[in-house]
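Proteins fold reproducibly. Look at a sample protein:
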Amino acid sequence: MRHTILNFFIVAALGFFISCSPLDPKPDFKKGFIKYYSGADYTTASKFIIDTQGNYYCIGSGFTDTDGDNIYVFKADNEGNVVWQRYFGGAANDTGFVIRQDSDNNLVVLGNYADGNGGTSIYLSKLDINTGASVFERQIKPNTSSAYGYDLRIAASGGYIIAGAQNYTPTLREALIIKTDNTGEIVNTANGRVVITYSYRDPNSTSTTSNDDFYVNSIDELSNGDFKWVGNSTLRLNQGAVPNGSPIFVNTKIDGRLLYAYNKLETVIAEPRMVSVSSLKKIADGYIAVGNSINTDNTYESFLMKLDADFKKVWYRTYNIPNNDYAFSVETTADGGYIFTGRQDIDLGSGDADVYVIKTDATGNQTWKKQYGGKGIDKGKDIKQTQDGGYAILCDIELITTPANKPVAAIIKVDSEGVIEN
């Protein structure tokens, strides 16, 4: 596995505008900034965390050389200035998805590692938080099929919980959950390895075989060691005007026994136009989720949904954003509300899109909305509230100075009203 330390540079924001005031080249942390992060060519962002000192730890992917995309991890200080950055990968395209801070105050990162021969393994690595140096690395594949990791949790009993998928045919995937010890080795119990696989089949289907592609993208470990998780399926509902595809809300025992699985048409959910969930977050009295639905005119629309502790819908909100819009990440806020970010298409013809952020109250009613962007396709990938009451948005921004208008990872720091204050 190759490790490369690349010099950081800030890409000039030519052609980029924000629906706020001009940018300060040397911003105060308590005000606003936008910073760009890239290596030899381009980068894309996935997730980030913020520590108690306001430092940012981010994961995504980046192209560096003829090896293709690599997993990209960097640390930035509370003004967005890079402290260190690392690339991890092999001879094919590798992707970084999730970063967490563990009980040892180090970083754990999850991604997918392509072997160059058409196969994929889950990539799990622990990094020193101060330097980014690798403590251990694992390529995990429970059997000979390709395996993919999309969510990571620090297990209450120690070790890590990985959620994703593995292939059961060359083109179709089933849900996969793995528990490892604190060195990344799959845990063995008296009942065997903690490796749960699950293929969802529409209970109303008359087919004798499943032909759905299914993967887990968010997981929660319960106090008794069981799992609640949401996956996205290409579920073929054959319901006429109801679009194909559905998130599946699942509760399983740690030994893999199924307690329940709900699709979007069941009475506890009953949102027939919903097609996917992008992010699920545990809250005090249940879960909050964002995702995407399809309107009757075939445009995509973001939603915010609250579920109780048993994955039953409490409320469901959409926000009448023009054209296509997609939600990628949701966070709770100190005032008891929610904030989420994603991508909003400027129109249906130009191909341009902006980062958008919506702040809501505790029942999902919008309190404000902001857009940030310019020419190209810009996306809000993750969002967090900062200690000063503002917000940090991890983005993909296409700048006209990058090769072929390719994206770079960016952090936008705004105040409590979404304004980049100078």
User: Anything to note?
Assistant: Confidence is low (pLDDT under 50) at residues 1-29. The chain is about 0% helix and 55% strand. Residues 30 and 388 are 6 Å apart (CA to CA).
